[in-house]
Write a structure and sequence with these properties.
324 residues, 2 domains, six-stranded mixed β-sheet, elongated, binds adenosine-5'-triphosphate, ABC_transporter-like_ATP-bd, ATP binding, nucleotide-binding, ABC transporter ATP-binding protein, ATP-binding
Length: 324
């Protein structure tokens, strides 16, 4: 069953097409990574999914509700951590969580949620005006978790988190998925998406340019490995080039560089080379997920490989310990 489905979902701002006819399909219980560099259209899509923006064309169905006409019903069952969370500076963190519980008619214990996201109880009793980015993100996550939502929409949730916060976020996402929630997780940070998501959709320039499981992306990636082999003697490059799956061969001094387009071609290529000149050392560079991402989003801004791991000025003490 789909938790979230869009049909030709489009958003134009004047002449500019921010989201260009995307067809998303996210299964119930799935952890879906919504990837793309800055400006790719992720936040605009999320705003349409939750009824904050009307589509210019197309439609979205979220948890069985029309995202535009029934946005209240969608939002009641969704926990959202928005990009650029806005807080009331004069209210404490705990007051924000308590207010979210009241608004949703939920019966969560605010202190439990605060502990779960790793915000120290003393920090939660302070006004949010002095919060660091990481503390705001933790608080935003606590608010998103209110009422055990059927769908969690997390827009760049790791932004501003330190490594401990990122690990904790991952465990929370996993626990939410185990509970049966669907998690829609937007990010330009590949490393985190790779670790938690069942499938990813890659946005570029407003278009959904790829959708696949991480395993399939990996398989496609390993399709391009570069092998550097140091040889003792003069190799016959033509016989290596003849091996199926070898796409490029070049020689630099005693080093031969081979590019293969599938994992199964690595050993035959090396054997063929070794037959012509003994191979004395080998390094294999399997392309990273980042390389694939760059290929799909070519021309767009290069994504970061790690989070904005900005140290929090007043890093919250680990109130809850490291329980999973
Ligand atoms: N209200 C608006 N008016 C005009 N253009 C807009 C508006 N909102 C977004 N855009 C443009 O639409 C494009 C997509 O923006 P969006 O915020 O959805 O991207 P994103 O993938 O979420 O990027 P980021 O990771 O930077 O948040 C950008 O070029 C942005 O400048």
């Amino acid at each position: 069953m789909s938790a979230l489905q869009t049909t030709s979902l489009t958003k134009r701002f004047g002449e500019f097409v921010a989201v260009d006819g995307i067809d998303l399909d996210v299964e119930s219980g799935e952890v879906y990574g919504f990837l793309g560099p800055n400006g790719a259209g992720k936040s605009t899509t999320i705003d349409m999914l939750l009824g904050f923006l009307d589509p210019s064309e197309g439609s979205a169905t979220v948890l069985g509700h029309d995202a535009t006409r029934e946005s209240r019903a969608v939002r009641q069952r969704t926990g959202l951590l928005p990009d650029g969370l806005e807080l009331y500076e004069n209210l404490t963190g705990r007051e924000h969580v308590a207010s979210a519980i009241e608004t949703k008619g939920a019966n969560d214990d605010p202190d439990e949620l605060i502990e779960r996201v790793g915000l120290a109880p003393e920090a939660a009793r302070r006004r949010t005006g002095g919060y660091s980015k990481g503390m705001k993100q933790r608080l935003g996550l606590a608010i998103a978790l209110v009422g055990d939502p059927d769908l969690l929409v997390l827009d760049e949730p790791s932004s501003g988190l330190d490594p401990e916060g990122i690990k904790r976020l991952r465990r929370i996402v996993e626990a939410e998925a185990d509970r049966g929630a669907t998690v829609f997780f937007s990010s330009h940070i590949l490393e985190q998406v790779e670790k938690v998501c069942d499938r990813v959709g890659i946005m570029s320039g407003g278009e959904l340019v790829a959708v696949d499981t991480i395993d399939n992306l990996r398989a496609e990636l390993s399709a391009e490995s570069v092998i550097e082999a140091d040889v003792d003697g003069a190799p016959n490059l033509a016989s290596v080039e003849a091996v199926e799956g070898v796409t490029a061969v070049s020689e630099r001094g005693d080093t031969v560089e081979l590019t293969v387009n599938r994992p199964a071609a690595k050993m035959p290529a090396l054997r063929a080379l070794d037959d012509t000149a003994p191979v004395v050392d080998v390094t294999i560079d399997d392309a990273s997920l980042e390389t694939l991402f760059e290929r799909y989003t070519n021309g767009d801004e290069t994504p970061a490989t790690t989070g904005d791991e900005t140290a929090e000025e007043s890093a919250p003490a680990d109130a809850g310990g490291e329980s999973a």
